[in-house]
Amino acid sequence: SANLIKLDPSRVLGAVDDKVYSGFLEHMGRCIYGGIVDFDSTVPGLTNEKGYRLDVADALKELNMPVVRYPGGNFVSSYHWLDGVGPKDQRPRRPELAWLGEEPNHFGTDEFMEWCEYMNTEPYLCLNMGTGTLDEALAWVEYCNSDKNTYYANLRRKNGHEKPYNVKYWSLGNEVWGPWQVGQMPAADYGKKAFQWAKALKLLDPNIKLVACGCTGFEEWDYIVTQALISQVDLYSIHLYTSSDDHYKNVTGTAGAERGIQICSKLLDLAKIQQKAYNADVKICFDEWNVWDGERAPGYLGAEEQYTLSDALAVASWCNVFIRQASLIGMANIAQLVNVIAPIMTSKTDLFLQTIYHPFLLFCKYMRGESLNLHVESPTYKGDTGCSFTESSVGGELLWVKGVEPAIPMLDVSATKKDGIITIAVVNRSLEDDLTTKIVLEGDYKETVTVYTVHHDDIAATNTFENKEVVKVEESTCKLGDLESYTFRKHSFVMLRIS
Ligand code: AHR
Fold it and tell me: Among 328, 349, 369, which residue terminates a domain?
């Protein structure tokens, strides 16, 4: 056949940072209350004594997430962390300006830290650069990380937590470029302000890692902010959501993310040179990504997407992007983890795994180690893409548009090797064609290859509380010799494990 996937395991592109399988929780809709915790549940065994949803915790533990970002998102830009610590009955109930809800503050910093410990994951906190002050940010770092005899460190002790939490990752605001953001400001203003915040925060705790607030990676904002902050930060955050009711746009949108990563990494290199920040080593932190259509599932209604098989394939393509670009990525956080644009959906009594959970779980489990260079020959997609190169997320001029649109192959592939096992992840994006492919792989391997498949005849198939396993992972095997001519069925995701 004309289709080809060729790989030589000695051609390593870079190490896959485990942190690409990180997550994000926001005080938004039913993500925290009703998702992570349910303090009012009377259903026997559903929650523990701390109110954690145990079924949610179990489904998340499978993903083995190294880091979870919290508490927003847009929410953080009018969030005062002090409202969320201390005796629960004395915590203020506040109006919430991102999603126009009310925040009871029953889950706050200490509850999040305890939940992270329970989940064996590392916290990543986002600072309020909207209504928040630098003093307040410094106080939060002191509360979380200081072992000194000072006010906020002592407040933590008074609240029952003797030892510092040592939160390593802190981000300097969220989507400060967005018209929806409380405290939105121009890039140059953000650059100046964040520079001063970074300096002070690192004086207080030199061990923290700071994350700059970038845009999509290919906006004018990114040029200005990389230049302003290259010497001060450890990671550079970008965000993108892709979606379309048109299958091809849905599954090709990820090519925009891939190009964004490449462009952004070049901007970081340029900033390093132009600002003479030769010691800077700033990787990209893709700390919000997923399939999300804000009209289909509006934020103020809790953004409860009902994911299809097409969306599952898009998520597999998202993960392929992170593997192929592994050398440029320090962290990536699927947004979000439960109920709100999430792989897990709960009711008061039950839970189901959305279609997107399944390919994501396969990546979390198996696509670790080192990313491999690939040669892929497949038909390319010629129609309209879902790349967001045609419109600017900030509503202004895009600097980086014409001439950088990627060519998009029908077979979307990435590969890793870990402990001698080669794993190949393949999305066949085609609606029409099964693609028979020759897989050429250097080296000696066992006769039996493990195959995981996510597929359904209906591209619009979804999982629901009533039918939880419409789209799921099927495990099978094939022979090494079958790779000579392997058929990837139309609109399917396949992961091959070759040991
Ligand atoms: O994840 C939902 C929202 O999307 C986040 O609050 C915000 O950062 C982004 O616009």
Answer: 369
